[in-house]
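lol ok so funny story. i was supposed to be doing the assay writeup but got distracted and ended up predicting the structure for this chain instead. priorities right. anyway since i did it might as well share w the group, maybe its usefull for someone
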Amino acid sequence: MSENSTDQMIVTMLAEGNPVWFVAAMVNMRSHDVYEIGRAAGYPDKAKLRRAVWAQQNRRRVVAAQAA
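and the output, tada:
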């Protein structure tokens, strides 16, 4: 999965249960592109998406702790 903030926002919104068409409208992308980004993170398995979001958040916390 890409570390791009837009991609992360898309994955987060899909994990929250928002439909692909809604997420696409919110980020001004085509539904197909949003679906492909979500699929790379485990979409339509919302549990897998949530784990991807949590893993990203944990990586940020570890990096912040190491920098401190």
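The helical segments are 5-15, 20-27, 31-41, 46-67. The two ends are 27 Å apart (CA to CA).
back to the writeup now i swear
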